[in-house]
Amino acid sequence: MQKKNFIIGAGGHGAVVYEALRANGETVEAFLDLDPALHGTDFMDCPVLSQNDALSDLQPAETAIANGVGDIGVRKKIFENLKQADFEIRTLIHPSAVVAPDVVIGEGAQIMAGSVVQPRTVIGDNVVLNTRCSIDHDCHLMAHSFIAPGAVLCGDVKVGDETLIGAGASVIEKIEIGRNVLIGAGAAVVGPIPDNTTALGVPARLVK
To answer: Catalytic: 13?
Structure first.
């Protein structure tokens, strides 16, 4: 029996997730959201239901859930809660993405429209490769990291857990970026970035 698809998060990233499912010929039963103001409304021509009520009622054996939240910390909590409840967490690849056949893709990862992922790359659980980003050979993206639209990672780049690479940022080859890092939009990363820091500018410099 084919499982029914639901998306958590009736917002911008949820709409992108919906489009990836639709482009793959799949349907979505409903969006699930915590905001009471959205309950009973429609989003992307789908009903919006109470997230807590729906997750209590849905049967994991019959349900697949896609993570439609963009905030890294919230995405991680959703992923962990769904795992604990034994729901299938959808892994998505938009049909317009170009992904080398040997790429390792973790559970719940999302590769959005126009993205390119080159050989020998590892994409961890719950990672987002957003619209038209480019990930070259031998990169390793740890769990819950988020690569924003148009970002470019050259070969053999390492990205730590829960790190955000901002829109249009670029990272030269063989660079290691730590966990819980924010790389600002448009930044050019030419050296290693330690854990729990923010780097902005061209070239990227630590600001905290």
So the answer is: no
Whether pLDDT at 2 is above 90: no
Contact between 57 and 36 under an 8 Å Cβ cutoff? The reply is no
**0.90 cut: is pTM over it?**
yes
Is 91-199 the same fold as 4-90? no
Please, where are the H alpha helices in the chain?
Answer: 12-23, 51-57, 72-84
* Domain residue extents for the chain: 4-90, 91-199
Q: Is there a contact between 103 and 86 (Cβ–Cβ < 8 Å)?
A: no
Residue 199, helix vs strand vs coil: strand
Which residues partner with 203 through β-bridges? none
Which residue do the tokens 């053999």 mark?
156
Q: Hey, what CATH class is 91-199 in?
A: mainly beta
Structure tokens at 192: 């290693």
Overall average pLDDT of the 142-154 stretch: 98
Q: For 76-135, what is each residue's pLDDT tens digit?
A: 999 999 999 999 999 999 999 999 999 999 999 999 999 999 999 999 999 999 999 999
Which of 39, 137, 140, 144 is catalytic? The answer is 137
3-state SS of the chain: helix, strand, coil percent to 5?
Answer: 20, 30, 50
**CATH code that applies to domain 4-90:** 3.40.50.20
